Amino acid sequence: MTEISIAKQQPSFFYGYALAGYSFAMGFLASSFFLHSRGIFFPVWMQEFAVDRTEISLVVSLVLFTSSCAAPFVGYLIDKFPLKIIICTGASWMALGYFSLQFVDGYTQFFVTFVLFQGLGWVCVGPLTQTKLMVNWFARNRGLALGIAIMGISVAGVVMPTLAAWLSKTLGWQNSYSLYGAILVLFIVPVTLLVVKQSPAVIGQSPDGDLSSMPQAVVAPLVKQSNFQIYREFLTSKAFWSVVITFGLMNGVYSAMMTHLPNYLTTELRFTLYDASYVLGVAGAFAIVGKIIFGWMMDHIDAKRTVLTAVTSYFCSTLVFISVDNYLLMMFAAALFGLGFGGMVPVRSVLISRLFGVNKFSRVNGLFSFFLAPATFWVLITGYITDTFGSYQYAFQVWAVAFFLAGIITLMVRLPNREDAA
């Protein structure tokens, strides 16, 4: 039997660290525009277009739904074509939509522009592409790398709500989105073209910066599969469906919280828009902590215990939203909510990479997003319940039930640990 010897030597600089910084910056900027501004602008849109919560919630839900439905196709493209081309195309498309908002003068035009440009743009620049980049470049430290890279989304959650409130007062929402578009075109596109490298092999490195040598004779040949065979493998896998079910009840509720919480705080509880922005900032700050904690937990602790910890954080935060109206306790609830949300992207990305490996990661991640598409309607459901019953309290109760069921399902399914990796 041939003895395998693996020699490891750390290069002077591992380029994966630079790409983690790039993904951090991308997450910060793209989510600032896509995720963390809309809650602040939500009451402004209601007033400008003379519509209620349900109409604006429908726009947000359909943006998320469009992104989820496009994810399988974009996931296929990510596994087949250079990442930098996908990201630059999405950033340019999103920027075009932001510039187009200058010419919007009614709800219907606003509806079409947001859904068409934001939904398709985000799926190309957001976590779907950035997680693929980290999966390509890291193996041993994948959970922590994913947590750090996607942390930019949470840092934006700290900074952007207050900044968006200031932009709303000074520039107005349309000029704010034109500014966002300019940043996408003038910063994100050129930096992406300059910085992004598809994989360590492109520059003669290996994942995690380890230089490994392995005899050619012991390397098993890759089994060629057609796309039909690959997608059939996903759809017939019990492990795939266990992850879909586990995350299905949680996915989208954070978007509902980010979208509706400022409106809840400023209408039902009579706090100021800046007060609401600080609460969202606390959620973003603890989401940063969540990405580090849950990324580390996925590398070192049982996967089921990690997911249950996040579900518990979500559930307890919702109980606080239901039972109190004190501003400091609202901050505490937002902190718990952010902590749970912070772990979701690194946790599910690690689970998927363990189940199906690196080469199929983006295709299965895109398909996974597609099956979570119904969860994007949490934003609409929350708005509709509130318009129907006149209070957000009923919507919060529905959230709590969903999280409780997610915890029960997590206890029932099998989630892959590190030793189970494909």
User: Helix-strand pattern, N to C?
Assistant: HHHHHHHHHHHHHHHHHHH
**What's the CATH architecture name?**
Up-down Bundle
State the CATH superfamily name.
Answer: MFS general substrate transporter like domains
Largest sheet: none
Written overview of the protein:
This protein has about 425 residues and is mainly alpha-helical. The protein has one domain (about 15-195, about 225-420): Growth Hormone, Chain: A, CATH 1.20.1250.20. About 75% of the residues lie in helices and about 0% in strands. α13 runs parallel beside α16 (about 345-355). The longest helix has 28 residues, at about 55-80.
Quickly describe the structure:
Helices cover 75% and strands 0% of the residues.
What are the main properties of this structure?
0% strand; 19 helices; disordered N terminus; mainly alpha; Growth Hormone, Chain: A; 422 residues; 75% helix
Describe the protein's topology.
Blueprint: H1 15-34, H2 38-49, H3 53-80, H4 83-100, H5 107-125, H6 127-137, H7 142-149, H8 151-170, H9 173-195, H10 227-235, H11 238-248, H12 253-267, H13 273-300, H14 303-323, H15 327-342, H16 344-356, H17 361-371, H18 378-389, H19 393-412
Helix pairs in contact: 1-6, 1-7, 1-8, 1-9, 2-3, 2-8, 2-12, 3-5, 3-17, 3-18, 4-5, 4-9, 6-7, 6-17, 7-13, 7-16, 8-13, 11-16, 11-19, 12-13, 12-18, 13-15, 13-16, 14-15, 14-19, 18-19
